[in-house]
Design brief:
Elements: H1 7-15, H2 26-30, H3 37-54, H4 77-99
């Protein structure tokens, strides 16, 4: 049996309710259109921005477990990361949600 939320959790949810706005990926995910060119382009842009912000665009792919590529400019390197990220961040979570 699950215990009720603590007083701290109740206080936080009262003063900081979850965001109700959808982001630019929500409609694609709801429509299961995650392999469309437009979705992948937006996701790739977000991934590039996040990699730059974290300083990962300046490291070798092997640093984040892509040892088959010498650098991110090599053909297929970023695409492999992009597809893995989509599958991990979205597909896996959708499958877990459907199975429960």
């Amino acid at each position: 049996m699950e215990s009720p939320p603590s007083e701290l959790v109740l206080l936080l949810t009262k003063h900081y309710p979850p965001k109700k706005t959808d982001n630019k990926f929500t409609s694609y995910i709801r429509n299961l259109d995650i392999y469309s060119g437009e979705f992948l382009a937006n996701f790739a842009n977000g991934l590039c921005n996040r990699m730059r912000w974290r300083g990962l665009s300046n490291v070798y792919p092997k640093f984040i477990c892509y040892p088959f590529f010498a650098d991110w400019g090599e053909r297929g390197a970023f695409d492999a990361l992009l597809i893995d990220c989509v599958e991990y961040a979205i597909v896996k979570k959708l499958l877990d949600y459907v199975q429960h």
